[in-house]
Specification:
By secondary structure, this protein is an alpha/beta fold. The chain folds into two domains: 6-214, Spore Coat Polysaccharide Biosynthesis Protein SpsA, Chain A; 219-332, no CATH class. Helix content is 44%, strand content 16%. It has 16 helices and eight strands. It has an eight-stranded mixed β-sheet, with helices on both faces. Strand 1, helix 1 and strand 2 (34-41) form a beta-alpha-beta unit. Helix 7 (184-192) runs parallel beside helix 9. The longest helix is centred in the last third of the chain and has 19 residues, at 220-238. The chain is globular and about 65 Å long. 37% of the residues are buried.
């Protein structure tokens, strides 16, 4: 397509399971002036065949097929190749509401001071049923002022597959940064917050899918550590100090964060932020998040919920780790607390 109004950008890696309804939901949009980039990031399942079959049916689809390089490289490649000034993100396991693009492009036209607009989401499971976990937290912020408050409060900022952004603005800050793998979107929003306005349309324009194999489930520890570091870098920039993460290709371990930020206590601060969020994460308790949890306790971290986590580890099939956590908790009890037993 020559000069489309929007580029829809979807990266897929072994996404055959949910791919077809995701593509069809984009093609069924009431706003039709778009090109649809679908990048197959070296899939080994039937992803390529599905994309090529759909491209043969609709000329707006522009397939990109190459070896696996990861999501950040895929997103940056699609930004580089996009022919439109507006880019709408979309994931291969979610579903767009029919008027999603129409409402977002209208918002961007009416609000030239906004560089990014997302939307609220309806959450679903692997079977298209409502997600059973009730979200009692705040919605994604509906204006920039609330967006800045949400940063400080640690509340959700944007639903990544629901966003539309101005291509030139994202290019001006260097696109997605590879060091923040699995939380590359949060880092980008925090970098953009100082040069443009960001918010979400306060109605659900996508159906956001939850399932065990998705990235946020499989890489919980890395994602949460990266998010905490991205927030620290945001406050460094806000204070007028250099961003020590700006040119990193990979984030260091938490034990090296004091040296990176040039002051003591940064690594401990990150561990204190991340540890409580790992207590219910099967992946986090099975990967290096468990060692982070033990170090957090050795640094005087709260025991709240920890004995229940011992039980949870047994249920997850990790009896050795359950025993290690129980020993760590028992060894840090006072003599009077030991006599009383675990809370």
């Amino acid at each position: 397509m020559a000069n489309p109004a929007i580029t829809v950008a979807m990266s897929v890696y072994n996404g055959e399971r949910f791919l077809l309804p995701a593509i069809e939901s984009v093609l069924a949009q009431t706003f039709t002036d778009f090109e649809f980039l679908i990048l197959d990031d070296g899939s080994r399942d039937g992803t390529r065949a599905t994309v090529e079959a759909m491209a043969a049916r609709d000329s707006r689809i522009r397939p990109i097929v190459r070896e696996n390089r990861g999501l950040v490289a895929s997103l940056n490649q699609m930004i580089d190749e996009a022919q439109a000034p507006l880019i709408a993100r979309m994931d291969a396991d979610d579903i767009c509401m029919p008027e999603r693009l129409a409402k977002q492009v209208a918002f961007m036209a009416e609000h030239p001071d906004y560089g990014v607009v997302g939307s609220w989401c309806d959450e679903i499971d692997a079977n298209d049923e409502p997600w059973p976990v009730t979200n009692t937290g705040p919605h994604h912020p509906a204006n920039h002022e609330d967006f800045l408050i949400a940063i400080d409060k640690g509340w959700p900022l944007l639903c990544h597959p629901a966003v539309m952004f101005r291509r030139d603005l994202v290019l001006s800050v260097g696109g997605y940064h590879g060091a923040f793998r699995h939380c590359e979107d949060l880092d980008l929003w925090l970098r953009l917050a100082s040069i443009t306005r960001l918010a979400s349309i306060p109605e659900p324009l996508i159906r956001y899918r939850h399932y065990d194999e998705q990235v946020s489930s499989r890489h919980a520890t890395e994602q949460q550590i990266g998010a905490a570091i991205a927030k620290l870098a945001y406050y460094e920039r806000l204070a007028g100090r250099p961003d020590p993460t700006e040119n990193l290709e990979r984030l260091p371990g938490t034990e090296n964060l004091d040296a990176l930020f040039g002051r003591e206590g940064v690594g401990r601060e990150v561990r204190a932020q991340v540890a409580p969020g790992l207590l219910y994460s099967k992946a986090g308790l099975r990967d290096h998040g468990f060692e982070l949890l033990l170090r957090y306790l050795s640094e005087g971290g709260s025991h709240s919920g920890m004995w229940r986590t011992v039980v949870r580890l047994v249920r997850f099939g990790e009896p050795a780790r359950a025993a290690r956590l129980a020993l760590r908790l028992a060894s840090s009890l006072t003599p009077s607390a030991q006599a009383a037993g675990p809370a």
